[in-house]
Write a structure and sequence with these properties.
The complex is a heterodimer of chains A (193) and B (343).
Chain A: H1 2-18, E1 32-38, H2 44-55, E2 69-71, E3 76-86, E4 95-108, E5 111-126, E6 132-134, E7 140-141, H3 151-177
Chain B: H1 2-19, E1 30-42, E2 65-79, E3 82-90, H2 92-98, E4 103-111, E5 116-124, H3 144-148, E6 152-161, E7 166-173, E8 187-194, E9 200-211, E10 221-233, E11 238-251, E12 256-269, E13 275-285, E14 290-297, E15 300-302, E16 305-316, E17 321-322, E18 328-329, E19 331-342
Antiparallel strand pairs in B: 1-2, 1-19, 2-3, 3-4, 4-5, 5-6, 6-7, 7-8, 8-9, 9-10, 10-11, 11-12, 12-13, 13-14, 14-16, 15-16, 16-19, 17-18
The chains are: A alpha+beta (193), B mainly beta (343).
Chain lengths: 193, 343
């Protein structure tokens, strides 16, 4: 009985581990998330403003560089963002590196098309002062397969990136669809409560 | 010097008071560190009374024994513009580097602006290429330049980023490696860092001051070191590092000592798991012996664990090493296997 339970437990655990996310890819095999968000009743200019407000929040970890590009004629926005990925089995958030990515937003009346792509891993290392810092000049595309010895850690990084991208898409959709109003919400207190 | 320290301190206090009111993001306490262990064999078979062997650069000196490096634990937190690092270590590698203190780093830092930060406390030295933590080095054994330079500098320093690619640091420090300085904060240190292209970093380092125990002797004197440290990730697979240093000590009795050395570090990554690196070093004591040292290292990385086989051959123009019959000789070689787990 115990043996059977143990085997079931092992199978469950391995299945849970095996559920690595499958990234969508473009023509060249690059990981990409792209879709169109429909926002009824909002014109191109207003959507552009909302998109600008959202995309300018993105930045690369520990960098002061401004990568925001706006093209008012073509109604497109570009910025670079990043997320910190962590070591496998670390006690508390020991940094493995940073994954940088590009976000492109294109606008039409009532439509916003997002593209998140170009995921590049930059490893971090603890420096002589005990702080984690980027190893400059070392960049690995997230699509690249790594050696068997480091597969588990790489799969963990991919999973973190996939989940982060899903959250990013959700927050972008919320920001684009959000209806701003100058009027404060009116609360009428009723006696019948 | 006194006026300069007072100026830096008053600047720090004023700026801190001005900035402390509006704080931004917080990050949780981060814990990281490493443990390491090794086995080393001096190929001459020589072993001294204490179990040590030839090649007396720092750490990993025990002959034919499965020996310990250190357990190193780093706590780090940033709250808004303020941060601290506390790094404690235990084990023979720790003992040989911080002499029973068990502290590698203990400092607080404050970002006055995006470009300017102030740091005070006990910090790993800004001088040199190699570091104490085995997780921070490619080779497991260490160079003569590392062994004879400073390990820590306690003090207060200001870092300023002139551009994204150029930075300067100036600071006032205790004597090398000491937590408490009995002759005052007498060392002045400066660093110019330049990144000409992505992947290439150059550091020009300078430190000078009056020491109670200059150059690890019991004698007082003025010690000055100039150092250039650089590393260039030339391609995805090929990396080249270089370290040059010149140090001099003028003792109070007018005698002098010093050293000059250069080390190069070509490294080639066959994959994300396997790399091969050579360290070649030429090191010369003023008016005394010189060394040529070749170290071939093949780290194999699997997640947090790095397994390090390493072969090293040192030679000197004087018979400073010993063979197995206890006769003086001009060269020594060793093989070691080390395991470093970084978390």
């Amino acid at each position: 009985m115990c043996k059977a339970l143990f085997i079931v437990f092992l199978l469950n655990a391995s299945c849970a581990f095996a559920q690595n996310p499958i990234f969508p890819i473009d023509d060249s095999g690059k990981y990409i998330f792209s879709d169109v968000i429909i926002v009824s009743g909002v014109d191109q200019a207003d959507l552009f403003k909302k998109g600008e407000k959202y995309i300018q929040q993105l930045k690369i970890h520990n960098s002061t560089q401004n990568n925001l590009h706006k093209n008012h004629e073509q109604h497109t926005l570009f910025n670079k963002g990043s997320l910190v990925v962590h070591n496998f089995g670390s006690i508390k958030n020991s940094i493995s590196g940073v994954v940088e990515f590009d976000m492109i937003l294109e606008f039409k009346d009532e439509k916003c098309r997002y593209t998140i792509t170009n995921f590049i891993f930059n490893p971090y290392k603890r420096n002589r002062y005990g702080k984690f810092e980027s190893i400059s000049g070392k960049y690995t595309p997230l699509e690249k397969e790594v050696s068997r010895l480091n597969k588990k850690e790489w799969a963990k990084h991919r999973k973190e990136v996939y989940n982060y991208s899903q959250d990013l898409i959700k927050s972008l959709t919320r920001a684009i669809s959000h209806k701003e109003t100058d009027q404060p919400k009116k609360i009428i207190k009723s006696d019948n409560w | 010097m006194k006026k300069l320290s007072l100026f830096i301190l008053s600047l720090a206090v004023t700026a801190f008071a001005a900035k402390a009111q509006g704080e931004e993001e917080e990050s949780g306490l981060k814990i990281s560190g490493s443990v390491d262990t090794y086995w080393k064999y001096d190929l001459s078979g020589y072993m001294d009374e204490d179990g040590g062997s030839n090649i007396w650069t720092s750490f990993a000196n025990e002959q034919n024994s499965v020996s310990l490096g250190m357990v190193d634990l780093v706590l780090e937190q940033t709250v808004g513009k303020a941060s601290f690092v506390g790094e404690i270590s235990f084990g023979p590698r720790s003992e040989s580097s911080v002499y029973g203190l068990n502290i590698q780093n203990l400092y607080v830092s404050y970002e006055l602006t995006d470009k300017l930060s102030l740091t005070g406390g006990y910090m790993g030295t800004f001088v040199g290429y190699e570091v104490i933590s085995p997780a921070g080095n490619f080779n497991y054994s260490t160079s003569y330049l590392f062994t004879n330079g400073p390990f820590q500098n306690a003090g207060i320093k200001a870092d300023y980023a002139i551009t994204d690619n150029i930075g300067i640091m100036v600071g006032l420090f205790n004597d090398w490696n000491v937590l408490q300085d009995f002759n005052g904060v007498t060392d002045f240190g400066a660093q110019l860092s330049v990144s000409p292209v992505d992947g290439w970093d150059i550091y020009f380092n300078f430190i000078t001051g009056d020491h109670e125990m200059a150059f690890y002797t019991g004698d007082p004197g003025k010690v000055t070191e100039f150092d250039i440290t650089t590393g260039y990730q030339i391609s995805d697979a090929f990396y080249l590092g270089l370290n040059f240093a010149n140090a001099s000590a003028k003792f109070d009795d007018d005698s002098e000592d010093g050293f000059t050395g250069v080390a190069i570090y070509p490294q080639y990554a066959f994959s994300d798991a396997v790399s091969l690196g050579l360290r070649y070093e030429n090191f010369k004591w003023k008016d005394a012996e010189s060394y040529n040292a070749f170290t071939l290292t093949l780290p194999i990385k699997s997640g947090p664990l790095t397994f390090i086989p390493e072969f090293r051959l040192d030679s000197s123009d004087e018979d400073v090493f010993m063979d197995k019959d206890m006769a003086a000789t001009g060269s020594a070689s060793q093989f070691l296997l080390a395991a470093v787990f970084a978390f």
